[in-house]
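Checklist before submission:
- one chain only
- standard amino acids only
- sequence pasted in full

Submission:
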Amino acid sequence: MVVEGIDSSEKLHKLGNKNRMTDYNLQCVNCRKERNLNLVAHRNDKKYITGFIVVCNDCLRYLEKLN
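Returned file contents:
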């Protein structure tokens, strides 16, 4: 999975996943974990937000090291 333009300022929302009815059972797109999730903005040409990617803390740290 390649995500361009990830930095810590684009982590928009931290999801606790304690109440599964409020966060709709979101999963990390990489490892399918359901806890400690972040919504990361996906940008097109670093100008406009085109969507959001759900990743866990572990995968987010790994992706930040790649970029």
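Reviewer check: Residues 57-66 form the longest helix (10 residues).
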